[in-house]
Design brief:
Layout (H helix, E strand, L loop, with lengths): L1 H16 L2 H34 L5 H11 L4 H12 L14 H25 L3 H9 L4 H11 L1 H16 L3 H7 L9 H11 L2 H32 L1
Helix pairs in contact: 1-11, 2-5, 2-8, 3-5, 4-5, 4-9, 5-8, 5-9, 6-7, 8-11, 10-11
């Protein structure tokens, strides 16, 4: 118990003192995950809208596939990306293994099915007449899409936050394709796993606290926006 208390105190000291190594890990983790979610979100929105408002052969199969892929294990995605970018893999010549680019690719593959499924549910819950009315009034398809997105913005924001939470906290994929290289590919989850195995609980607790505060902050922002939207209406 004393050891845990000491480690907690040390973790606070690390965070407040601006420890260079600790904050480098935090910044790298957010940088990689923000880039991944920024790339995945537009693709997911278009796919989700198409699945919700267009009718084409195989549509139901795609919806079921994205739904099933939501729970795909991170290590399976990591293994797939690893084999793809390894020297003997089809994209081995790009030499992307153990780089931030490989981590971003892995995180995109992890969050894309979740984003598509949740955004699809949001679009499905919207009144179809919003889209049809916007087109009738002369709006371009893109403008009509933005109008529809505004109507379901809280559902879409919740989906994006959920996707971000999924990738910034995953460890399996990042460890496999990033290699956990200090100042290069070591992010918060891989650092927590490594420091815990070494018995350095202070840094692990500090990094875990950052993830916890991030989760609370994102949920607080979402709750505020939903409340603000209800007041505005």
């Amino acid at each position: 118990m004393d050891t845990l208390a000491e480690a907690t105190v040390q973790s606070l000291q690390l965070l407040l003192s601006g420890d260079t190594e600790l904050w480098a890990i935090i910044l790298l983790s957010f940088s990689v995950s923000l880039r991944a979610i920024a790339i995945a979100t537009p693709v997911a929105l278009l796919l989700a809208f198409g699945l919700a408002h267009l009718r084409f052969p195989g549509r139901r199969v795609l919806i079921s596939t994205f739904g099933a892929l939501q729970s795909i294990p991170a290590v399976v995605v990591g293994l797939t990306v690893y084999l793809t970018f390894s020297r003997s893999g089809p994209l081995g010549d790009l030499r992307l293994l153990f780089t931030q680019t490989a981590m971003i690719v892995g995180q995109i593959l992890l969050c894309l099915p979740l984003l598509v499924a949740l955004c699809h549910a949001a679009f499905q819950g919207a009144d179809r007449r919003v889209w049809e009315t916007a087109l009738t009034l002369g709006a371009s398809p893109l403008r009509a899409l933005f109008t529809l997105m505004h109507e379901v913005r809280f559902g879409l924001i919740a989906a994006i936050l959920t996707g971000f939470g999924r990738i910034i906290a995953e460890v399996g994929c990042s460890m496999m394709v990033g290699g956990n290289i200090l100042n290069h590919t070591r992010n918060i989850p891989t650092a927590i796993a490594m420091e815990t195995s070494k018995g350095d609980f202070a840094q692990a607790i500090a990094l875990g606290a950052v993830l916890l505060l991030m989760a609370l902050g994102l949920n607080g922002v979402l709750a505020f926006m939903q409340g603000h939207g209800s007041i505005a209406r």
